[in-house]
């Protein structure tokens, strides 16, 4: 027996209250009296998808049709070998599930009223108790509904519950709103089913309006006739200590609703940054005796939409930084658990999100409970994906949603469906059940004082914010697909949305790839082509690159001069770092700042990661929300001998919200440490069959005398398949003149070219390092530019490199990667389409100082003498119909680049997403120096 968060007495599936109880005594009698005054709940299914109970089951069509078996509940039947998987739009009206379950409710429920409650079943549900209809068929798959079954139930005896669930509805408008949507459709009892028992006269529900100033109003709704004459309420904190005095109100005879009110002095206010919760218990008394009591968690907070200004919480303007979340798990569909809800919320908070939109239906109650507890602003949404419920079908569903969810402080807005799926006749219904009178939104429209339009371009976003007059809060923007969207373009958008007066923030589409494990397709994960892989996270919550980009851009602590640290630690760094506080309620004094001095391994050491030379903390600066300030680091003497300085910021919950790593030496200085040219070994050069062959010790390099390009490399007799470069990735290279011979550095080959490539100098040094100096000339707009080489992809097994990683980058998604020594094994992941093996191996990598390619022949190590080098590793695969999320790649296999392309979204090309999505403008001469070393695999 336990008391739930919402004040129910929870019983086991058998209905037993206490097993092995001692003889009845005074204390036990008092405890049982208190228990009798509460609503008691007996689960017939398990409480969630992690705790299930088997029921008898038969499906009428699809797999295993017509065969009775058992199925765990709650669940969606498709995941247990029954019925048909279908994604949106494809209705299967003949598919029904028949359930049967035998249960025994407690004998002491005689004389009490009993209700059969379904938290959610898809989509039309008919229930019978002992062969008798519990009530009318319920239509609507995402809502709580209940039947009074007092007269149909036999307490203390075996009872039979029979349920028929039709996957599609007999009401066309319900199918239009719920089933003809851009998401997976499932069938079955996927949320818990339970019995509730209460006294004949009881409190059916309460609706709380708790304001930031401590004003508290409670609407209590009563059911049943009886002698009750008074309601008494008491507020307590999370530990159960009373807050304020009890407050009371008389109950007039025959009253069905009564309002209580009080005021609490200086309550701790609820926000997403400070999720302080209280509990209120409301007791229904008669003659001084408590007949029934309920309790609810709530928070003191006030929401305001100030026209032509913004959204305010507790008098402070807030920017919502959120994502759209579907309720789904790959092996259980819409049947989830508190564990999954917690994981998703913590992942969102790890990305520094403070908000979530429930797309496109109300979520499980455990998700909202955890949003209250952990701190997350919520947009709670009625179903309706571009088509609406009729007023007759929708009105009871609005009532169900609001009555269930009204007391959650996390909910800021109600959403009346999505993208034209609203029925405007329902707009006024929300306020009938919500004493807080939250604003109702029409996602995709300008309604309720807020423009929520979807997928505006960067330029139209600028116009709306700078030239419009309404609050702008897109409930969907940057529609992800595969590796596009989300982080790509977000910095440009947030430069506008994070600073313009009319902005209230926005919601990325979407949090998750909606993938399901298909037991009818050998266990493969199905994302319905390009319809459902829209997430920042994979189906099993795999973190894609954009996860870290979003975390970086939405961190509440930012650098005031990011450009000063763009290429590493400034040479004049004196320990001072300018910071901006983007919190709404939190002073940076509540954060913890810690620094580390790092040493990186060299390529020859063959490992990744770093060693910590020294570490310490810094006093948190006193920066109020919305203000700038300075963090002062007191570093030890000799700190510049380290390879990098790392700084992390954690919040009051010890969650990392931001981290930076800055390399200390310049690329030139670092190259000098790593590359030994040697002096004690002879270097030779000769022309052999149209090639210039250079030899130093165990290394032999061949250059094509007709082109000046690399023709082959051998080390200790083993050939390396690294050839045909440095060819310009844009334009031509026609050899004009070539010379070769010994010089002060070794044996050099110099080539002059016409076309884009102008000059190349190869030099094999006595140490065996091969130096390459090249210069090219390019102007105009281009997707990418640099030089490239060939190397068979099939001969590569991995790479170790010092640079920003471990994820690949695009021109408009450079943030979120960290300088370190990283290792990746080869994979051929098509992001969001198959495998979900992250980080992806192939693609563009930023700020590479050195890299060792693991090949079948051995390791090819490259060292750059210049900053800001992009290393391109092969050409990745993309999923089917990638729209604007398959950027161009150069010919060849490996490239050393000065510029790379941007990536788009499902709906927009990169150039529409902001300045960083446009083409690169080449500005004349580009010169670089690279060093190569070849090591045979032992």
Automatic annotation (TrEMBL):
Signal peptide per UniProt: 1-19
Pfam family membership, one: Bgal_small_N
Domain Beta galactosidase small chain/: 759-858
Record key words, sorted: Glycosidase, Hydrolase, Signal
Source superkingdom: Bacteria
Enzyme Commission numbers on file: 3.2.1.23
Alphabetical list of PROSITE patterns matching this protein: TAT
Catalytic EC class: hydrolase
Catalytic activity: Hydrolysis of terminal non-reducing beta-D-galactose residues in beta-D-galactosides
UniProt keyword Signal present: yes
Occurrences of domain Glycoside hydrolase family 2 catalytic (ranges): 309-424
GO MF annotations in UniProt: hydrolase activity
Domain Glycoside hydrolase family 2 immunoglobulin-like beta-sandwich: 232-301
Protein family per UniProt: Belongs to the glycosyl hydrolase 2 family.
Name of the protein in its database record: beta-galactosidase
Species annotation: Streptomyces litchfieldiae
